[in-house]
């Protein structure tokens, strides 16, 4: 009966959540758009408009739309420019896309009738999310009307459908917080981006003057100049007759735009030395390059690398971190997290405090409990367990292929010994502290579970002829390595790092989700524009890195974001010259540049550095709470900031921040001394 009552209560709660709002609910929420006419016709008390408002504000309607958005995301992953038009998969995608487009059109019409179109503040198009929805719906309707599936405009319209996953942003509070925070940080980032552009522009002009038309060369290294190269149609190489060609490398300094593209590759340090070597081998316009002919030209690239990659880029990271810190102070520590996630962080901190003061220091009256309690307090006990954990980890690392039976037998007895020691450790703590005080500590719970898994493995191995015959055996065996994490709870520094990761999870989840959505959108757009680009065996675009299907496209986007040979990918797409496809199908020269630059700028330069900023902020908070950052302890403070600087490559920013803190403390001390003097004079 209790189960039935519970199910009935759950059903009533679900129905209450999905129930459409009543007129009283609409009036109590004070929707100001009802004060204005919709489309100049429907007033706020119109029953038709009230019905539209109820439908639009209904949780059930929002849930259905969210499910449709997720369904369209699945459809986008199934699409490919290489699908046959008469295939069943292509027809299913087309029919499903038509149905979802009609439903989204109905959603747009209902919202326009409920809120109005554009004339007042709370109208439909005044919301950026609704404006994006309108653009996607209109592009989808136009694409349905185009019959020619290979038409160039259709690719643009279908690429706009890739923005559909961004509709999730307007329906998720965490993503909205991240987007609004990014909008606040945009001005500071934009100023520094303009500075970086001007820096590259100056070096590009210098590079054009020095290297214009000097990177070209013949594929026959025996020639001297362009005239000799083109005087014959072919040459012999490795017993094969090869056509002679005067080639121009994809990255050159023939014009300022080309030079800026080459310098962008140098800034990201992606095989930048290859461009430098080309400059060092240059001879002159129309002359065949000679190895190290002008080796002194490496100075140009070294200066640019220092100015851009080492100075400007680290300043960029510092600006992102500084902007994040300012927003943290302005918003009271709520940057990139919702109020609910903020409450979760506070509850985790409260539990951490409860853990540190979890058990009483009263001396037990029972002799056995007293001995166990006294043992737990001794530092020798923790040191011994630390040594046991380290030794057990080293023993596990000695397992190898082809080991002798004697070696296996020794490992087996050592494993029994370690498990018994960990079991005795748990028993000593439980008896000495009591079960309640023992279980309150999360590290004790972790130790207990590790010990339990090790014990289960031993029991299974003793009861079975071969643990390998059991499916769970390898799983339990691999989980033994988790003993290493027992060390984390023993040392304050490691505990700070672990707590930093734990406290960063809500903000990292929000930023990571938005980062995934952006990569998802770019993967679908890449499929629409670059899906017809064929690769070749030795090229960057090949069977592993391409935009033919969604899986490969997403992996390729992740390669670009992480800076893995992205310059070669861009070169292959921009210089695509497949006779089987027109220029649009094979890749537009300008669009790949826009695609790659925006992807790198948005994901690599901004969002990944925001993750760095979040981790640094949480690290400083946890280090302060653990007592590693204390006022007046300059050496300890300096040591931790040095570690942060090496990890996050924030040499300039951290030192400047430290000077500001010292100056602020000195100023506050001077003020206190002046106040004391004033009181003394009075």
TrEMBL record:
Q: Which InterPro entries match?
A: Ion_trans_dom, VGCC_Ca_Na, Volt_channel_dom_sf
Source organism per entry reads Cymbomonas tetramitiformis
Where's the Ion transport domain?
59-329, 381-623
Transmembrane spans: 56-78, 99-118, 130-149, 189-211, 296-321, 379-398, 410-428, 496-525, 593-616
Protein name as annotated:
Mitochondrial thiamine pyrophosphate transporter
Q: SUPFAM superfamilies, from UniProt? A: Voltage-gated potassium channels (SSF81324)
The molecular function GO annotations come to: voltage-gated sodium channel activity
Its localization reads: Membrane
Major subcellular location class: membrane
Q: Which UniProt keywords apply?
A: Glycoprotein, Ion channel, Ion transport, Membrane, Repeat, Transmembrane, Transmembrane helix, Transport, Voltage-gated channel
Q: How does it sit in the membrane?
A: Multi-pass membrane protein
Asked if Transmembrane is a keyword of the record, the answer is yes
Q: Name one GO cellular component term.
A: voltage-gated sodium channel complex
